[in-house]
């Protein structure tokens, strides 16, 4: 039985979370239970699984996760996600209540994590290709939207020029923890139309990387050794 109310209700619910605070009125214990039942077999106990097919979702902005789920459920070709992955996610999400999806995303946001291998010093230690990959990821277009060290866009203090870690871009994905082959698959999906929505200029922004294989190789060497590791703890409302 299809249990989700409607896409409009889903998007409205996403807006409520974003504007009223992530965990406001969300049932974290319910979110954890449903996540473990429905999502963990593919995405891992805390969303940390990452390979060429499955993306890491641990640490992603709640707004981004909600918009992606809405895209999987959408019938609008300008927003929907196509292909095998799109059809699979649509079939899974269509069986989950809107409130349960919101609870899942709220619970994921309570899982603390640490990032290994993303910094310039760590990339430099892995050799020239990884060091070049770090530079490309931060200064060759990616970092302008996806943030320093793939950790999501942060706003720089106009006085000091330093990043403000408290300000993020809720609809821009963090790339930290995503593997090289997965990233390439998604970029190709933008090119062939299987991944719609988001920034329509993505394929044009990233075109130079496809034209210069060594640049893609450098980013891949850098990205492959960047890991996001969950740090489970007990939180109000749910034990991780």
Report on the structure:
This protein has 240 residues and is mainly alpha-helical. It is 50% helix and 8% strand. It folds into 2 domains: 7-110, Cytochrome c-like domain (Cytochrome Bc1 Complex, Chain D, domain 2); 118-230, Cytochrome Bc1 Complex, Chain D, domain 2 (Orthogonal Bundle), CATH 1.10.760. A two-stranded antiparallel sheet has the order 1-4. Strands 2-3 form a two-stranded antiparallel ribbon. The model is unreliable at 1-8, 15-23 and 234-239 (pLDDT under 50). β2 (155-156) and β3 form a beta hairpin. The chain starts with 6 loop residues before the first helix and ends with a strand.
Number of domains: 2
Strand content: 5-15%
Strand arrangement in the largest pleated sheet: 1-4
User: How large is the radius of gyration?
Assistant: 18 Å
Shape label: globular
CATH architecture term of the largest domain: Orthogonal Bundle
Query: How many helices does DSSP assign?
Result: 12
> Which CATH class of the largest domain is shown?
Mainly Alpha
Classified in CATH, the superfamily of the largest domain is Cytochrome c-like domain
The averaged pLDDT comes out at 75
The assigned structural class equals mainly alpha
């Amino acid at each position: 039985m299809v249990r989700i109310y409607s896409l409009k209700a889903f998007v409205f619910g996403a807006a409520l979370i974003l504007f009223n605070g992530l965990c406001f009125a969300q049932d974290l214990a319910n979110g954890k239970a449903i996540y473990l039942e429905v999502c963990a077999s593919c995405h891992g106990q805390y969303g940390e699984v990452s390979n060429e097919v499955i993306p890491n979702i641990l640490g992603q902005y709640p707004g981004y996760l909600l918009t992606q789920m809405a895209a999987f459920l959408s019938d609008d070709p300008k927003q929907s996600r196509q292909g095998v992955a799109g059809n699979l996610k649509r079939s899974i999400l269509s069986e989950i209540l809107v409130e349960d999806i919101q609870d899942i995303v709220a619970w994921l946001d309570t899982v603390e994590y640490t990032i290994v291998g993303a910094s310039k010093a760590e990339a430099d230690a892995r050799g020239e290709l990884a060091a070049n990959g770090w530079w490309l990821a931060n200064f060759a277009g990616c970092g302008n939207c996806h943030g320093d060290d793939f950790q999501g866009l942060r706003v720089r203090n106009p006085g000091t020029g330093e990043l403000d870690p408290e300000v993020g871009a809720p609809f821009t994905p963090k790339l930290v923890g995503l593997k090289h082959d997965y990233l390439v698959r998604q970029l190709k999906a933008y090119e062939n139309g299987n991944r719609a929505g988001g920034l329509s200029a993505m394929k044009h922004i990233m075109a130079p990387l496809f034209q210069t294989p060594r640049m893609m190789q450098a980013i891949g060497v850098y990205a492959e050794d960047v890991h996001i590791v969950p740090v489970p703890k007990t939180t109000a409302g749910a034990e991780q």
